[in-house]
Amino acid sequence: MTIKAVYLLRNLLFQKYWEKYLREVWSSVTKILDPHVIACPLGLVRGSMSVRTTRNNFDPYIIFKARDVIKLLAREVAITQAQNVLQDDAACDIIKIGNLVRNKDRFGRRRQQIIQMAVR
Questions:
Q1: How far apart are CA 40 and CA 51, in angstroms?
Q2: Ramachandran bin of 39, using left for φ above 0, alpha for ψ from -120 to 50, beta for the remaining angles
Q3: pLDDT, tens digit, for every residue of 73-120?
Q4: Model-level pTM?
Q5: Secondary structure of residue 59 in the 3-state scheme
Q6: Closest among 13, 71, 91, 70 to 45, alpha carbons compared
Q7: I need a labelling partner for 2 at 20 to 30 A (CA). Which of 40, 45, 102, 112 fits?
């Protein structure tokens, strides 16, 4: 009986202007994900980030947490905050609030309040 390793791959696109920052911090992203045995290639040509499991990975839930890390990086969250998602007692959820308000000023104020609550 042979056992085949399952490789999960999650691709995510990022904005072109965010490429410079990602290129600078990508070495630290790989250092953060290496202890969890997650491979994370950065595709600068297509503007994509991806994570995938490797043969030595024994934690099935870490791929979802790694996916959340690159989601946060694609949404312009700093690496110092994005790495907190890998902890067992932390989680991440992206709330789309752009279509909740018709008034742009009110939208800006609400967004700022949410960001301030997240920093605390």
A1: 4
A2: beta
A3: 888 888 888 899 988 888 888 877 667 777 878 888 877 888 787 766
A4: 0.72
A5: coil
A6: 13
A7: 40
Contact 68, 58 (CB under 8 A): no
CB 55 within 8 A of CB 72: no
- Alpha helices in 3-103, H assignment, sequence order: 19-33, 62-74, 79-82
- Here the tokens at position 115 are 């960001």
Strand partners for 50 = 11
Contact yes or no for 82/59 (Cβ under 8 A): no
Backbone angles phi, psi at 88, to 5 degrees: -70, -30
Predicted pLDDT of residue 2: 37
